[in-house]
Task: structure prediction
Amino acid sequence: MDRCVITDPRLDEECKKNLERAGFRVIAAALTDLVDTPISGHPDIQMFLHEKNLFVHPDMDKKFIKSIERYVNVIQCSSKLNKNYPDDIPYNIALVGNFAIHKKGFTDKTVRDYLLNNGIAVVDAKQGYAKCSTLIVNENSIITSDRSISDAAKGVGIDALLISDNYIELPGYNHGFIGGASGSCGDAIYLTGRIDHHPNRDDIKSFIASKNMQLKILSSKGLIDAGSLFFVE
Result:
């Protein structure tokens, strides 16, 4: 397969099978004991992806690196992860077009330099888990339950739909986030589960359709925050 998707190794089997049916090779990120167990396999905690450049923390599992090198240019960074916030957010960046939404001052230096050298402006948001909290619809629109991200996005001209939180599961925590339960590739938005129970389900569907994007539901279960789906073509 020429396309792959990086996922948490604990991603629901139904999700994995549907991703494979869609033509993606599913590559599991490794679990790490450097961060809290519920997020220990989350791609958006351990790495940052832009085009075919994958930035990873310095202690990234070598087997994972070997499995993904065929698809991306792996760049090992210097920011180590640990369980204490904000030491678990250096790579948790929401990239929207030419803007990278993140908590300023906590972005890994290698990633920050790369962004600036490529004309991508870092937009400050109070929410440290920016990628977890942001469903990136296209290069100019997002869906989020975090008002600081919504305000930051709108401040640079990005269209943002603000939704309710507490309706996405993340075992071990009170709730998860829409960004961690999603990923986008081409003209499709993939969600880890159904949104029937979400109070903003109609708004979410309408917003995505208005951007000429298709909604793909990967599981018959409810939405689960799996640390984002990182698609590589």
Q: What stands out?
A: The chain is about 20% helix and 25% strand. The radius of gyration is 16 Å.
